[in-house]
Design brief:
- The protein is α/β, with parallel strands linked by helices and about 290 residues long.
- Helix content is about 35%, strand content about 25%.
- It has helices at about 35-45, 60-65, 70-80, 85-90, 110-115, 115-120, 140-150, 210-215, 230-240, 255-270, 275-285, and strands at about 5-10, 30, 35, 50-55, 100, 125-130, 130-135, 155-160, 170-180, 180-190, 200-210, 245, 250-255.
- Helix 3 (about 70-80) packs antiparallel against helix 4 (about 85-90).
- The longest helix is centred in the last third of the chain and has 13 residues, at about 255-270.
- The radius of gyration is 19 Å and the shape is globular.
- The relative contact order is 0.16.
- Bound molecules: 1-O-phosphono-alpha-D-glucopyranose.
- 1-O-phosphono-alpha-D-glucopyranose binds near residues 109, 201, 202, 204 and 230.
Length: about 290
């Protein structure tokens, strides 16, 4: 069985939920405390054993490329001022080799993944979406790769969401359960409220066999007038079993404002320099 070594990170979305800040700044560069959200995603990929990353970008996303590039002047400046730990942080984001491709039209997530097909070739690969940051002992993606190595076919990361949220996600209709792993009858993208077949929602972590591209190639338009990744998964599942894996760990939703604020507070409370002061401040606010 071929190893999962490549990952696609789609980052071409318009970020409309965060306007106006995303007018001139990619939403993937919005920071949680002091790191852009996309860096958490790249770090998870690397910690999961991924060796090659391709980011699918679009108009106005140049800041992402700059972030993962060397910054000679900045590094020199930090070196002269002997700010070694900051220097290390800055260098960490440019050590990784990242590839880029542009999605020329915003046609949907399925289309964004399809844009990276030539980079992937005939190998299994991972997809990580930037709207979810996963905090887990074993990185979220690593858990899926371990499952892939057991079953030899595609594995999709899921977690349980409350009824009132199912319409925001791709939802799976599970049939047979084996521990945290489910065989699935159907994958449904954003079911209308009250119609979801379960509460197991797709959480932005995927491992695919390359056969998914056969179905992305069809470029069929689905929910919201977009080419949906979930629709291609549904078709793949008819010819090759696609498993859903209820991965362990805390999923932070940074794709919408309230989740973003909560994540910022959670991460700041875990930060040595900030936690005491922030705790004091929160107490005052509650008063
Ligand atoms: C996308 C996927 C959806 C998935 C979600 C996870 O939706 O289409 O299946 O549940 O990401 O964040 P989006 O949030 O991009 O609309």
């Amino acid at each position: 069985m071929k190893k999962v070594k490549k990952a696609i990170i789609p980052a071409a979305g318009l970020g409309t939920r965060f306007l106006p800040v995303t007018k001139a700044m990619p939403k993937e560069m919005l920071p949680i405390v002091d790191k852009p959200t996309i860096q958490y995603i790249v770090e998870e990929a690397i910690q999961s054993g991924i060796e090659d990353i391709i980011i699918v970008t679009g108009k106005g996303k140049r800041a992402i490329e700059d972030h993962f590039d060397n910054s000679i002047e900045l590094e020199q400046n930090l070196l002269e001022k002997e700010k070694f730990s900051l220097l290390e942080e800055v260098q960490a984001s440019s050590k990784i080799d990242i590839h880029y491709i542009r999605q020329k039209e915003p046609l949907g997530l399925g289309h964004a993944v399809w844009c990276a097909r030539k980079f992937i070739g005939n190998e299994p690969f991972a997809v990580l979406l930037g709207d979810d940051i996963v905090e887990a002992e074993t990185p979220g993606l690593k858990q899926l790769i371990d499952q892939y190595e057991e079953v030899g076919s595609s594995v999709i990361g899921v977690q349980t969401v409350p009824n009132k949220e199912t319409h925001r996600y791709g939802i799976v209709d599970p049939i047979v359960q084996n521990g945290r792993r489910h065989e699935v009858k159907n994958f449904v993208e954003k079911p209308a409220p009250g119609t979801a077949p379960s509460n197991l929602a797709i959480m932005g972590r995927y491992v695919f066999t390359p056969e998914i591209f056969m179905f992305l190639e069809e470029q069929q338009v689905g929910t919201g007038g977009e080419i949906q990744l979930t629709d291609a998964i549904q078709k793949l599942n008819k010819i090759q079993r696609v498993f859903a894996y209820d991965f362990e760990g805390i999923r932070h939703d940074v794709g919408e404002k309230f989740g973003f604020i909560k994540t910022t507070i959670d991460f700041a409370l875990k930060n040595k320099e900030l936690k005491d002061e922030l705790m004091e401040y929160l107490k005052q606010v509650i008063k």
